[in-house]
Amino acid sequence: MNTSSFKESILAFLFLFISNSVTCQNNSDGDDRMKIRLGFTSANNIHRQILVTVDSNTTTGIDFGYDSENYENHVDDMYWMIENRKFVIQGINEIDATTTLPLGLHTGTTGNHTISIAGLANVPEDLEIGLLDTETNTYYNIK
After folding, report:
1. What is the pTM of this model?
2. Which helix (H) or strand (E) holds 114?
3. I need a surface site. Which of 12, 34, 52, 124 has the fewest CB within 10 A?
């Protein structure tokens, strides 16, 4: 693996409430926690799905039993960054208009890479979900 071909960047995962209404998408499994799944598909057709869940038992740091560290090493990958470590599942105690979550991304191949919403559960309809490329200061609304 040629590490000089890796390009690693940190994105900010942004949540912005547009209004104060609380209409949510329903979750039929009885779990009423907010869950947002993001999908990443690389030019190499590598796919990664990551999850953030709102749970009052968690913090913005590493929480044993709630966060799941990424132990795989794909040439193209996306992950949550918590305390300079890579995670595929992150628990957070709340999401509001000021919430941002560091998102890591690295690619070893040039081409089209896609980040999209892979699933939403119990998410307010007026919650804006976006990405901020911290290198170019460009915001992308992905909802």
Report:
1. 0.80
2. strand 114-121
3. 12
What's the pLDDT score for residue 21?
36
Q: Which DSSP symbol is given to 35? A: E
Q: What is the percentage of the chain residues whose pLDDT exceeds 70?
A: 80
- Alpha-carbon distance of 92 to 85, in angstroms, equals 16
Please answer whether residues 127 and 143 qualify as being in contact, where contact means their C-beta atoms are separated by less than 8 angstroms.
yes
pLDDT at 24: 45
Which residues are CB-contacts of 108 (< 8 A; sequence separation ≥ 6)? Answer: 1, 2, 5, 6, 7, 44, 75, 76
Residue (of 38, 35, 22, 33) closest to 56 by Cα position:
33
Contact 132, 56 (CB under 8 A): no
One-character DSSP codes across 65-93: TT-EE-----SSEEEEEETTEEEEEEEES
Q: How far apart are CA 104 and CA 38, in angstroms?
A: 12
* Strand 68-69 to 114-121 pairing: unpaired
